[in-house]
Specification:
about 50% strand; 4-stranded antiparallel sheet; 2 domains; THO complex subunit 3; WD40_repeat_CS; about 0% helix; WD40_PAC1; Tex1/THOC3; single chain; 28 strands; Methylamine Dehydrogenase, Chain H; mainly beta
């Protein structure tokens, strides 16, 4: 099998649950060293968790307080394991130091922020809001460098590994490919028959994947901008996707009550993780086969559980 010397024994692996938020968790993200996980919640906080991939110790978490609305998405500095940026419905974007739990910088933008991503070299942050406006921040000054409003629905955003291309997934079923930093249009890929919701970049830089409202995930070769295969296991709109650290597996999730893990090279499902609710966020660890996932879980009283889980441990 291309790229993989060993297949991962997914069926022998277990999930663990992490509790701390008061409302549902919208976003989970690992830091670049794979040792910390951040969770962002409707309860207006983010939390940072120290995760030992093989350990079983009591997990300590730090609460990041200050936002006055839901923390919809968060992302870690790709070069610095202790810096994290959060985007919130309160219009602010904040940068935090994971060691102290203190907010080091913040800036107020023009709308409710729903998407945030770092450029792979850590110098810029892109933020998307509910009004389809894209803002690029210079991380050092934490000030907007570019702003652009689009006439169509813009969903998730991403840079390629070299930072020369910037991708927007749109409500029209297309992926807009822009040159960076000019943001000049390079290509419009007609990817799906319904809106494109999420995008993930293969850590090896070969592919990107797009999840759509048509319940499909498409896999694209970056060099040729061609669709090489589709993953068809889900039956509901695809909300979240992630490649594992070797680029051999892709996880995708929706309102289906399982997370699909497929082999990138064959397109075949290798494992399904059962879940109890629609998923909001899945993300693989950058160093280990640990998959964090969070959704709309409710308790028996129909209140939000505020949990996330991590799959991939050898013992429960």
């Amino acid at each position: 099998m291309e790229g993989t010397s060993t297949t991962v024994p997914f069926k022998n692996l277990h999930s663990r649950e992490y509790q701390g938020h008061k409302k549902k968790v919208h976003s989970v993200a690992w830091n670049c060293t794979g040792t910390k996980l951040a969770s962002g919640s409707v309860d207006q906080t983010a939390r940072l968790w120290h995760i030992e991939p093989h350990g079983h110790g009591k997990v300590k978490d730090i609460e990041l307080k200050g936002h006055t609305d839901s923390v919809d998405q968060l992302c870690w500095d790709p070069k610095h394991g202790d810096l994290i940026a959060t985007a919130s419905g309160d219009k602010t974007v904040r940068l935090w130091d994971a060691r102290s739990g203190k907010c080091s910088m913040q800036t107020e933008l023009s709308g409710e922020n729903i998407n945030i991503t770092y450029k792979p070299d850590g110098t810029h942050i892109a933020v998307g809001n509910r009004d389809d406006e894209l803002t690029i921040l210079d991380v050092r000054k934490f000030k907007p460098m570019h702003k652009r409003k689009f006439s169509y629905e813009v969903n998730e955003i991403a840079w390629n590994m070299t930072g020369e291309m910037f991708f927007l997934t749109t409500g029209n079923g297309t992926v807009e490919v822009l040159a960076y930093p000019s943001l000049r249009p390079l290509d419009t890929l007609v990817a799906h028959t319904a809106g494109c919701y999420c995008i993930a970049i293969d850590p090896m830089g070969r592919y990107f994947a797009v999840g759509s409202a048509d319940s499909l995930v498409s896999l694209w070769e970056i060099s040729e901008m061609l669709c090489v295969r589709t993953f068809t296991k889900l039956e509901w709109p695809v909300r979240t996707i992630s490649f594992n650290y070797t680029g051999d597996y892709i996880a995708s999730a929706s309102e289906d009550l399982f997370i699909d893990i497929s082999n990138v090279h064959t397109g075949r499902t290798v494992h399904q993780i059962p879940c109890r609710a629609a998923m909001n966020s899945v993300e693989w660890n950058p160093k280990y086969n640990l998959l964090a996932y969070a959704g709309d879980d409710k308790n028996k009283y129909q209140a939000d559980e505020g949990v996330f889980r991590i799959f991939g441990f050898e013992s429960p």
